[in-house]
TrEMBL record, chain A:
Details of cofactor binding: Binds 2 magnesium ions per tetramer.
Keywords: Aminoacyl-tRNA synthetase, ATP-binding, Cytoplasm, Ligase, Magnesium, Metal-binding, Nucleotide-binding, Protein biosynthesis
Name by which UniProt lists this protein: Phenylalanine--tRNA ligase alpha subunit
Oligomer and partners: Tetramer of two alpha and two beta subunits.
Catalytic activity of the protein: tRNA(Phe) + L-phenylalanine + ATP = L-phenylalanyl-tRNA(Phe) + AMP + diphosphate + H(+)
PROSITE patterns assigned to the protein according to its UniProt record, in alphabetical order: AA_TRNA_LIGASE_II
Positions with a binding annotation for Mg(2+): E266
Gene transcribed to yield this protein: pheS
Organism in which the protein naturally occurs: Qipengyuania qiaonensis
Domain of life: Bacteria
Pfam family, any one: Phe_tRNA-synt_N
Automatic annotation (TrEMBL), chain B:
Organism: Qipengyuania qiaonensis
GO molecular function, one term: phenylalanine-tRNA ligase activity
Cofactor(s) the protein requires to work: Mg(2+)
Presence of keyword Protein biosynthesis: yes
The protein's assembly and partners: Tetramer of two alpha and two beta subunits.
Domain of life: Bacteria
Gene (UniProt): pheT
Record flagged with keyword tRNA-binding: yes
Subcellular location: Cytoplasm
Protein name: Phenylalanine--tRNA ligase beta subunit
Keyword terms: Aminoacyl-tRNA synthetase, ATP-binding, Cytoplasm, Ligase, Magnesium, Metal-binding, Nucleotide-binding, Protein biosynthesis, RNA-binding, tRNA-binding
Length: 373, 789
């Protein structure tokens, strides 16, 4: 064994036996540092004769790299040990609860209004709005309910104090102001503003002086209006069928049209929709007339009365169309299964988080306008 | 309106059963709200004969009967009625039958140890009247074993909602006419024989109010006996839900319910002199038949004599001259009143009646003489006496309306093809006269027919709305355009952003109490007829509704609450779309990690407001934080956000403790409000493409500055001047530390900023950085800031 072999064996043994990273670093300096023993040997190469250098060079280089590799390997081993030890000390109990991220909700009425906007946008309807504090003319007279019309009595209207009548809004000087009893005044306002042809829905708050288990003095309606040339009852029927099928996402929605009376439509049509009993709950769809099925009144509609079209400043010989109105709260209850209208307006956090919707359940045609339970 | 099948069959020959009739009524526009079928109600009750009656061995007041039910062995029945005796016939309820009066199901049972197989019933138990002193006693010829319902000839009673445009169907005959037109049978017009007068009418009548009462016809019938109505009449009225009173009163009601024709009978003995239809004198009073006294005014039409008012015309008669069992001579009144006048008077007096319902919708102006003849004949038949000549004042408006009709309109408006012959048949069956040129003469009773569309409705409803086929709306040509307005989009984004931020959307009442409104500055829109004091004023702010909801939630045990609402505020100048939120109590519950719960503070409200404004597309970077958030907020912990000093778009902060106290809330509440209509609407860009942009090639560098500033300096003022120090290089300045106390002089605070510098084409040199830093320090100095050593 040459001296170099001996040196290499000693060095590798010492490296192998180094107890910790500090000792290893001391060995690195001892062997490979500027003053290190192997570094010293390397310096002798320069003074050697070429022949000798050819022999010693590879040997010394081999010695140096073997030592460096051993140190590197040993160092990595120390680092691994250290990491293992740290990891072992860092264990978390991840069954502990994470901080709550509060989950908010969208009110069912808003959700349903967004659904309606989506469904009707597909049919070419825009969303229109109008004031809730209305004047008599828009709420009644222009809808063919003159001052003495008996149908006015059916509306249970909220009126504002007469002595505040000076606060009538610009659009209606000198008329008594009231809370709109239906969304129908938006028909008039939209027709006056935009003319025909027009396709709109008008969702919003409406008010009737009525309060019991199934009525609240404030509730939500959506109005639909189509005025064009050559629109007839068949189009109304199709539109309602299409809307209700899309809304309830059922093919088997059946409608029953019944003649009725509204001053602002002629002919007037009341629409019943078929339901069936599913586990004691009325679910829309099915047959209507079959055993275990039935009809429920859902909405009022009809061909817009000529007088209304004329009141809105259009020529009723040129323009005709249909209108309908339906309760938004009612639609929400039928689709999503709430049974207490009063709870809609109570702001009970428990109710809101149960019946409310995730903000990411944005109704879209591609995802389906409804949000399943 | 209620009527029985039997009553309908007086005017309609039909084989249809009740269900078919109901379905047809629905189909032609008379909504059936219910059918009460006595055959179902009386199921299990049959005629039985008492064979033996013996005292109960263990009870003084009971008897043990054996009764023959017409089949099988006689049954043993225990009975408590004193009139039960052998040989009588009555009504037996068998086990399984349900007693109409109390809903009890009869069972075979033992009464004081004696077996009883049913119950002999009283009048009251079967809801046939009030009598309950004993069991029903049927005539000797009553057939034992027959179902009681069949024996009684009871028939199903329809409850039908008549729409206000069809007063002609507020009588059974009118309904029969519609059903006959719909093919459900043959109309049987009543036989109307003129009733000859036997003597001149002893009372003069006059109308001095030809507008309110265009026609007033009458006659006297003298020598009547006004007893109880016979059973057929009493039953008819009962089926209609009316209480029988006396034959004459019942007959006027019968006229109204049969023909939609109200009439009135006065006790002639109580009248003085000429009977006149006139306007009331303001202040005149009348005690009406409902025993209430009404004060009248000069717009109201009344029937009066020389002594006073006897009738609120067309609405309700007076108590004084009403007929009684003692009445022997009556004056009958059949008049035509102006519908509008009746409506106005009725509303003013708050007085509803069956007569008003019909007159204000319009009765048949061509049915005065016929109506009077029918009524006279019925009275003569039931009450005897003799009739005077008819006297007539004025004349009803009978000019028939003629509508030029185009049968093609049925297809164009109604969407259904109906053959012209069939259209003609339908109209004629409804009493319209149709000539060759389709000039349609309307029956005078059809006040609702104004034009061709109404005739389309007549044709379509009788032909069948179910025959209208769905026709797709034509789809608009071209590329679909978005249909939502900018405000609608803003609302949608805000709603979903707030929910994504953890808030629950509430919808609260638009009206609040006056007290609550006053707490937030008062509301100008006050209801005249609120449903309660709690719902009286249109909210000028969404906050009261949310605070009330918060209080309810806290009362239910919530300790943390995040609520928002998007809705309108109602101010003197109109309605303003707004968002408001409340953050109530604890931001987070106590936890293993965070320890004590942390309550919300004003910065939570600020963060939320800014986040929502960003979601709404407001120019958040340009907002100024200013004061004057208003009286609802804590004066030192609230602010407004404005675009320019006057345009206030949001406010936020801690709710004023006094307001919380007024709402009975004892935890801190943070709130915020956004005025949606104050946010400038982004004008639609011409293209979807964004402005060209490439991230800077060189990295931004940060420099920290710690300033000593006056203690009351708003941090935003320091940040603003620092940002403005070198608009090209300084791209951001962020407060990362605020400190006062040890080491900071009295009246000063230390504010530390991290300023971000963005190099352009070339990196900054040390000299350039030094120059920028000097500008920053100089700018800060203008706000009284000095660089900390």
């Amino acid at each position: 064994m040459t001296d170099l072999d001996q040196l290499k064996t000693d060095a590798l043994t010492q490296i192998e036996n180094a107890p910790d990273a500090a000792a290893l670093e001391a060995l690195r300096i001892e062997f490979l540092g500027k003053q290190g023993s192997i570094s010293g040997l390397m310096k002798t190469l320069g003074k050697m004769a070429p022949e000798e250098r050819q022999v010693q060079g590879p040997l010394l280089n081999g010695l140096r790299s073997a030592t460096a590799d051993a140190i590197a390997a040993r160092k990595e081993a120390f680092e691994n040990e250290e990491l293992e030890a740290r990891l072992a000390s860092e264990t978390l109990d991840l069954t502990l609860p994470a901080p709550d991220v509060p989950q908010g909700s969208v009110h069912p009425v808003s959700q349903v209004m967004d659904e309606l906007a989506e469904i009707f946008a597909d049919l070419g309807f825009s969303v229109a709005t109008g004031p809730e504090i209305e004047d008599d003319w828009h709420n009644f007279t222009a809808l063919n309910m003159a001052e003495t019309h008996p149908a006015r009595a059916m509306h249970d209207t909220f009126y504002f104090l007469q002595d505040r009548a000076d606060q009538t809004l610009d659009n209606a000087p000198n008329t008594r102001m009231l809370l709109r009893t239906h969304t129908s005044p938006v028909q008039i306002r939209s027709l006056v503003e935009h003319g025909a042809p027009i396709r709109i829905i008008a969702p919003g708050r409406v008010y009737r002086s009525d309060s019991d288990a199934t009525h609240t003095p404030m509730f939500h309606q959506v109005e639909g209006l189509v005025i064009d040339r050559a629109i007839h009852l068949g189009h109304l029927k199709w539109t309602l069928e299409t809307f209700l099928k899309a809304f309830f996402e059922r093919e088997d929605i059946v409608l029953r049209l019944r003649p009725s009376y509204f001053p602002f439509t002629e002919p007037s049509v009341e629409v019943d929709v078929g339901w069936q009993d599913v586990d004691g709950r009325r679910v829309l769809g099915g047959d209507g007339d079959a055993p275990g099925h039935g009809w429920m009144e859902l909405l009022g509609s009809g061909m817009v009365n000529r007088r209304v079209i004329a009141f809105a400043g259009l020529d009723p010989d040129e323009w005709q169309g249909f209108a309908f109105g339906v309760g938004v709260d009612r639609l929400a209850m039928l689709k999503y299964g709430m049974d207490d209208l009063r709870a809609f307006f109570d702001g009970d956090r428990r109710w809101l988080s149960h019946y409310g919707f995730s903000p990411f359940d944005q109704p879209t045609l591609s995802a389906g306008v409804g949000a399943r339970a | 309106m209620k009527f029985s099948l039997n009553w309908l069959k007086v005017y309609l020959t039909t084989e249809a059963d009740a269900a078919t009739i109901a379905a047809t009524l629905n189909a032609i526009g008379h909504e059936v709200e219910g059918i009460d079928d006595p055959a179902e109600r009386f199921a299990g009750f049959r005629i039985a004969e008492v064979l033996t009656a013996a005292p109960h061995p263990d009870a003084d007041k009971l008897q043990v009967l054996t009764v023959d039910t017409g089949e099988g062995e006689p049954l043993q029945v225990v009975c408590g009625a004193p009139n039960a005796r052998a040989g009588m016939k009555g009504v037996l309820g068998l086990p399984g039958a349900v007693v109409p009066a109390n809903g009890m199901e009869l069972r075979k049972s033992a009464i004081r140890g004696v077996e009883s197989n049913g119950m002999m019933c009283s009048v009251r138990e079967l809801e046939l009247g009030e009598e309950h002193d004993g069991i029903i006693e049927l005539p000797g010829d009553a057939p034992v074993g027959t179902d009681f319902a069949i024996y009684r000839g009871t028939s199903p009673v329809f409850d039908v909602a008549i729409t206000p445009n069809r007063p002609d169907c507020m009588g059974v005959y009118g309904i029969a006419r519609d059903l006959a037109a719909a093919g459900l049978g043959t109309l049987k017009p009543p036989r109307i024989d003129a009733v000859e007068g036997r003597f001149p009418c002893p009372v003069a009548i006059r109308t001095e109010d030809p507008e309110g009462c265009p026609a007033f016809y009458g006659r006297v019938i003298r020598g009547v006996t006004n007893g109880a109505s016979p059973e057929w009449l009493a039953n008819a009225l009962l089926s209609a839900g009316q209480r029988p009173i006396s034959a004459i009163v019942d007959l006027t009601n019968f006229m109204m319910l049969s023909y939609g024709r109200p009439a009135h009978a006065y006790d002639l003995a109580k009248l003085t002199g000429t009977v006149v239809a006139r306007r009331a004198v303001a202040g005149e009073q009348i005690e009406a038949l409902n025993e209430k006294t009404y004060t009248l005014d000069e717009t109201m039409t009344v029937i009066a004599d020389e002594a006073g008012v006897h009738d609120i015309a067309g609405i309700m008669g007076g108590e004084h001259s009403s007929v009684t069992p003692e009445t022997s001579d009556v004056l009958l009144e059949i008049a035509y009143f102006d519908p509008e006048r009746i409506g106005v008077t009725g509303r003013k007096l708050g007085l509803a009646s069956d007569a008003r319902t019909r007159f204000e919708r319009g009765v048949d102006p061509a049915f005065l003489d016929d109506g009077l003849a029918l009524l006279s004949a019925l009275i003569l038949e039931l009450c005897g006496g003799e009739a005077s000549d008819v006297v007539r004042a004025g004349a009803p408006p009978k000019e028939p309306r003629i509508v030029t009709f185009d049968p093609g309109l049925t297809r164009r408006l109604g969407g259904v093809e109906v053959a012209e012959d069939e259209q003609r048949r339908i109209l004629e069956a409804l009493d319209f006269r149709v000539d060759e040129a389709w000039q349609v003469t309307c029956p005078p009773r059809r006040h609702d027919i104004e034009g061709p569309a109404d005739l389309v409705e007549e044709v379509v409803r009788i032909h069948g709305l179910d025959k209208v086929e769905s026709v797709a709306l034509p789809r608009a040509e071209g590329v679909a355009k978005p249909t939502a307005t900018p405000l609608q989009l803003m609302e949608r984004k805000l709603r979903r952003a707030a929910a994504a931020r953890g808030l629950d959307e509430a919808i609260t009442w638009s009206f609040i109490s006056e007290r609550e409104a006053d707490l937030v500055g008062g509301g100008p829109w006050v209801l005249d007829n609120p449903i309660s004091e709690e719902m009286k004023v249109m909210r000028p702010s969404l906050l009261p509704g949310l605070l009330s909801a918060a209080r309810r939630n806290l009362a239910r045990g919530a300790s943390s609450l995040r609520l928002f609402e998007i809705g309108r505020r109602y101010l003197a100048d109109g309605e303003h779309p707004s968002l408001a939120f409340v953050l109530v109590g604890d931001e987070a519950e106590r936890g293993w990690k965070t320890g004590k719960p942390r309550t919300f503070d004003a910065y939570d409200a600020k963060a939320l407001v800014l986040d929502l404004l960003a979601a709404a597309g407001a120019p958040v970077g340009n907002l100024m934080v200013m004061g004057e958030a208003g009286e609802v907020y804590h004066p030192g912990q609230s602010a407004t956000l404005r675009l320019g000093p006057k345009n206030r778009i949001a406010s936020f902060g801690a709710v004023h403790p006094a307001l919380l106290k007024a709402f009975d809330i004892d935890v801190p509440v943070m709130a915020g409000g956004i005025h949606l209509d104050a946010i400038p609407v982004k004008k639609g860009a011409p293209s979807f493409a964004r402005a060209a942009y490439a991230p800077p090639a060189l990295q931004a560098i940060g420099r920290d500055f710690a300033f000593l500033v006056p203690a009351d300096l708003a941090a935003a003022d320091l940040v603003r001047v620092v940002k403005g120090a070198d608009k090209k290089a300084v791209v951001d300045a962020r407060v990362f530390d605020v400190f006062a106390g040890q080491g900071v002089p009295e009246g000063r605070k230390s504010v530390a900023l991290e300023v971000t510098l963005q190099p352009g084409e070339k990196s900054f040199t040390d000299v350039e950085i030094k120059a920028i830093s000097d500008k920053v320090v100089a700018a800060a100095a203008k706000q009284g800031a000095e660089l900390r050593g």
